Amino acid sequence: MALSSTVQELRAQVRAIEAPEPRAGAVTLAGGQGTSEGEMPDLALGCLHEVTGDPGDLCAATGFTAGLVARLFQHTGAGAPVLWCGRTLTSHEHGGLYAPGLDEFGLGPERLLVVRARTDTQVLWAMEEGLRCRALSAVVGELDDPGFTPSRRLQLAAEANGVTAVLLRTRSAAAIGAVTRWHVTSAPTKRDSMNIPRWQVQLERHRGGDLGRWNVEWRDETGDFSVAASVRDGPADKRVAQRHQSQPKQMAS
Amino acid sequence: MLGMALADARALVPDIDATAADPAGDAKTLAGLAAWCGQYTPWTSPEGADGPVGAGVWLDVTGCAHLFGGEQGLLEDLVGRVESLGFDARAGIADTPGAAWGITRFGKGRIQIIAPRSTRDALGDLPVAALRLPTMITDGLDGLGLRRVGDLYDLPRGPLAARFGTRVADRLDAALNPGSEPVSPLVPVPERREQMAFAEPIGLLEDIERGLEALLVDLCMRMDRESVGARRVDFTLYRVDGGIARARIGTSRPTRDAHHLARLFAEQITDLDLGLGIEVMAVSVPSLEPLVPEQMALADRTQPGQRNNQSSPDPASVAPLVDRLINRLGSHSVVRLTQRQSHIPEHAAAEIPAADDPVKSDTSTTTLPIARVPGRGSRPLRLFPRPQSIQAVAPVPDGPPALFRWRRVLHRIARAEGPERIAPEWWRTSLPWDAPWEAATRDYYRVEDEEGRRFWVYRKGLYSGPDGDGHEPTWFIHGQFA
Question: What is the C-alpha separation between B470 and B341, in angstroms, rounded?
């Protein structure tokens, strides 16, 4: 029908307006072949992204963010460092970034600059200053709730200077106008050793792109994500419990 | 008159106003006045705050007088402004500090200038007290009939020193011979300084910013001609009410980029207390460092939003960003995280300030490479500053916990790896943790709960048998994995 084709045309026009122009390009997150679950979309450069987690699960979101900036660092090349801005309160509540743990993401001292601020305002200011300095590959900020206007400013600064900004939300709250919004939760590891971190990642918002949900692992050898097979929801693994039933237990405090 | 007793003064003027003396407050005011006089010359120093003949300020105006229309013009401007601040003032210029001191206090007239090389004649008629001698000596000289400085000129020094000590001769020489008595400035004299004075006091922020930019441009041009750079720059504002406002910035590398310095000052200017207005502002550099001229890049032609992947962002261009962050947030707010050679987890990581070179300033590493922790992924991504206590249920003697409670949430463990035993450093005689040694050993476990969250927990202490020493081990959580 003529009406539905008009609607299709209008929809295409709206999508074209909404989609950010691919001026700066994008970086692939998951190297290697996609599985039957579908591939993760490329991460657009030069704009603002948002990563959230559950209240008690900030470290999973932190790990995913570390993987994102590691990919951004590799893509930029030429050793442009990453700026990570956080508040001292967050490091007291959830722990501060630990250098041996950052090793597996390849973020050594010459690649990562850490800013410790006291207030949200200072974190936002540091992020904006970082975005204006084009010699960085990415800027990360740990914030509770930046509000709409500051996040809009970050988006504009990121677009103007071509530096990618990632907001790590310490508290999951209302969405701000970021290009993508990822929600990360921990997922049990399924391999022989616990060395390879694994998360369930849900792309909740994606301007001009598709949403999706994947189980993702970070591969240290190749320095990228890999989409893993889905976790079957089943009864909890009783191996550990069975192994210890035969030994006397002692309550420890 | 100075030095008179209160009773005598009251006898002359019955309703005289008497207040308690405040030597500390007077000294502070005098120091402030000396700093305020810095707008004439950076070489100022207060003197004589507790002397019987009134307090004063030394100013070394060598080479500065022409800026104010000659020595007479300088003194008139100075005395006029000091009097408008509410003081009674006299001023004098001479070849030596001693002569200037004497002519100011004992000469006739508010403003005295001793022409160069005529110090001897000018001082000759002054009383001996003009040589800064204590009253005991002046009374002694008076008893001998030596009342004028001129009487002392031709006396043999020997008997004079025998009677009064060397001070008389020293003061006389200091007053007559230039260069024999240096004046120590109150504030260290900067190496370079640019100054701007205003006909009308200004108070608006934009005007101050524009003045500052003009001064910085001049300063940087001078430094450019000399191929030097600055790492610290001071900005001083002299207020109409005699106060001073100061701002100081520092950079991680020597620089002579006026724009960058102006941006660093922009944060601090808004916090300055400008009083009723600013008359003079000055920028100064305490010390200079050599700075080789660099080849500047051609105009940046990349469009906004595009990244030119071929051009490598050199580390020097991150330095201005680090400067701005440090000047606003504090010097230890921007750090790099490095690893250290230690098996104790909290010592295995260190922070070094970002202003330093990450490779050169990591003094903790020796020639040995950092020992890789056993296995990739065996250290958490986030580490708590202090391990937090948890309640855990675990099989004895060294099994991983089956469940633990932390922050009121119960975690059932689905998977565990470990233990990794980390004992205190045996070469330390005083243990950082509680002694004895067995009670301070930690067994670390990587555990994963049913939802997939991964934690780094440890048991502090070892389970002793039924006949052990009764130390109950305790469980802690130290970090979280990605």
Answer: 34
